[in-house]
UniProtKB/TrEMBL annotation:
PANTHER family: HYDROXYPYRUVATE ISOMERASE, XYLOSE ISOMERASE-LIKE TIM BARREL DOMAIN-CONTAINING PROTEIN. It holds the Pfam family AP_endonuc_2. This is Xylose isomerase-like TIM barrel domain-containing protein. Residues 21-237 form the Xylose isomerase-like TIM barrel domain.
Amino acid sequence: MELWLSLWSIGPNLTETDLLKIKEAGVQGVEIWAEHLKADEYLRLANRCGLKTGMHLPFHDLNLATFDPVVAERTLEVLSEWIQRLADHRAEHAVLHAGYAWAYEDRHEALFKVKERLHVLVDIASKAGVQLLLENLIPDKLNYTHNFASTVKEWTELLTDCNLGACLDIGHLAIMEEDPIDTLKKLGDRLMSVHFSDNDRAADLHLLPGDGSNITAGLCDYLKAEGFTGPLVYEINPYRYTMDEILLNVRDARL
Ligand SMILES: [Zn+2]
């Protein structure tokens, strides 16, 4: 199993020295945070430092479930541009959010739109040779909006219908109140990447493993035993921890 770090964890002002330090700590790859304004530069720098790369595609201002055709067009345009850029840099994967329905009552209609647009992106990514991964999201427990996908059932159906790989966010899953091992069994071979952090099962705090309710306990052993080889991506709150604190924890991780 490979240990990766999400660059969101480091904050928006990253240098080549930071990336070299990350590599030295035993990190094999970095997931570039597309909404860092210098994301494109980080992609080049990470390559130069000999780190494998993937990307968390942008999702702010974008929505694959939108009813607004202009927003939909722009969303597909931005995501397609990044997928092509990732292919040019030989990045390994791109993680995607499937957007949200404006209102809970509209979720069935919005789901059709999500599927249609995911098919378009899957086609672009497969032609570009980039693996597209769909992430599970936090449910809006108020039911004001509806995030796709915020139940395991909805997520696994989207993965199968659109032929996508899965990026399992363990923190989101805890807030979904779903069991990690049951979910991993349902995902089977679709699991390609894991976003790894701890929380209190109520808020998506992105804590270091062990600093919350210990939701990651036993997970690495299970994944190892199942022969999971994909990246385990530390996605840690940059507003709470320094890079050194994160790397100290990463060095101690036994994968
Ligand atoms: Zn995400």
